[in-house]
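Before a colleague's protein record goes any further, I have to sign it off. Would you go through it and say whether the fold makes sense for this chain? Take the sequence as given and treat only the tokens as open to question. The record follows directly below this note.
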Amino acid sequence: MAIVRWEPLREFTTLQNEMNRLFGTVFDTPAQGNGGTMRRWMPAMDLVETEQHFVLHADLPGLSEEDVNIEVEDRVLTVSGERKATHETNKDGYHRVERAFGSFSRSLTLPEGINPEAVEASFDRGVLEVRIPKPEQRKPRKISIAPKTIEAKSQDAEPAAA
């Protein structure tokens, strides 16, 4: 008989996953036209800060560059798009659809001073990368005080006659 170490945090993770699955199936919105259910799709995104940039990575499997829209307006970066359903309706039996599809939109508020013209994006193997250059830090201007030269008066000097 093997002894198995009990890890309570793993139990909580399992419970959370099951609750998410349960609520996900209860609150799914109906799909248009076929009477089934459509799972809401929200792509996973990471935002990393480097010395010079904010870098956003988004997992967009099954999408192409044409399916994704990136906009910057009033310090808000919005990534949106749509993944279309690839399954067909089968009238003779049942099928199971687990892959989520549909439109999505994610918005992030950027710090002040971002130049929207300098934002760059690339797309490689289903991963979107958006590079946002950090704004230049406003640095206080240091003003140096010039030393004042004081002319020394000679004590031996006689006052000028008037």
